[in-house]
Amino acid sequence: MKYIEGRPIPPGYHVETRARKGLVVAGPIIFGVPYLLSMSVAASSKYPPDRWLYAPVVGPYVNLASRSDDCDPNISTGSTTTNYTCPGESSTRFFLMLDGLMQTAGATMLILGLALPQTLLVRDDAPYTGKNGSHFAWSVTPYSMGRQGSGLAVTGTF
Prior knowledge:
3 helices; elongated; alpha+beta; 24% strand
């Protein structure tokens, strides 16, 4: 149950602070997947700026800034216009930007999930009581069924 600052604590409850589980779980996933892809690109690429992809969060941005334009000029005859052909460069820049934004978002989510814990009201008789230990116990024991049958039984106390 959410705790609202200043309100009295109901009987049978105590206040606990916990990390924000949603941010702590989603943050590393959103950060980790593109970072692992970045590291695989850095390991397999021969292009020197791609080595920056080993650096988490800042690597894609530095790589993006240090890329040179590999464009070929196509000069039309009888015309003064010059067209540039940059094969694959725009998609590479798009994915580098997406990679950097996802790594930044994931790292930010993890940091905020740990730095801004939530305050909750927890029942005193709940099975999970955080730092105070648990009152819940269970065991698996052999169990006889009928005249000749046997099996396992799970028993527990709350």
